[in-house]
Amino acid sequence: MNKKLKNVILFGIFILFLFISTFSKQFDSSNLWKDANDSGQGFNGLLFKNPIDVSNLTISRSIEKTSSKNLIKYDIEFEYSGEDSSVRILGTPVRQIFFGNSVEPSHSVVELKGDYDNINAKLFNEKFSLRDYYKKTQDYNFKAISQIRVPLTSEDSTYSFTVYYEPRELLYRGKDLVSESSAFITNAKVDKFSNAQKMGDNENPTFSQGGFYVNAQEIKNNSAISRISIFNNLSYIIFLASTILVFALIWLDNKKLNKLYPIFLMLIILTFYRFLGKGSTTLGILVGYPILGYLGICISKLMNKDTLALSKQELKQSLAYTIVFFVIILIVLIIPRAF
């Protein structure tokens, strides 16, 4: 067999093994991107049984900073003038809600039906600027759930209360906060919706969908996003450059330059998963990377030879190089994770 063709096939086998490894949960995009809290995954908002009887609905949204995290605060006020009815508070409030002495809410967890899938589709396909990052999590859609039902009567007329929610936090590698998002929805006419904080570079998409008024918020950590972008771009460049250089070495078939095969194959392992937008668990790095490294070094030795056989000495050398590679990944990948 022609040596160049043989080396192309060997390199293809190496890349194939890398692709096969992505079927493992140890190498998946969910290892990079996670939602920090379950309570922040629900829609915020109000679902009225008789929305036509609601008037002068005003909502003010602000951020209340606590020692541990930010909370979204909604100051809500409206008038009700119809027959006895009710309103459901969407999502999972994190503090007690005070409605007044005459109002006695009931508690029951229900999953609501409606046009919520289309609202999610518009948010995560059009409105949110970080939509590609959200979609890398296991379940990125907001959930239409409710735990509190509040009775409404025309006798009370005016209702005024405050609701606190946890925002939905998107974390990178389980520790870097990338964004805090929320989506307030209601099926009643909103007379005024105000945000107390300045949005700046953040997003505040507002739209109507299937009879719902939607006012979402996306607060971004631009410094974290910038670091992620730089690291991703660097990984893309290294992966593509290493791949091109491997093909260049195959074409040149120079004995002195062929010693560079192991270096380029190891660089491909280190950047392959990030090139595909996937992350690696600690177990995947400690076990998967050395196995792939040993395979890559053995293949690099075969690419230097005219035959397809390795001696015992070459296998021992490959193991020694793999140990060196293992030390490198400990320094470059594992130790930084501890900080």
Automatic annotation (TrEMBL):
Keywords: Membrane, Transmembrane, Transmembrane helix. The chain crosses the membrane at residues 234-252, 259-276, 282-299, 319-338. This is Uncharacterized protein. It comes from Anaerosphaera aminiphila DSM 21120.
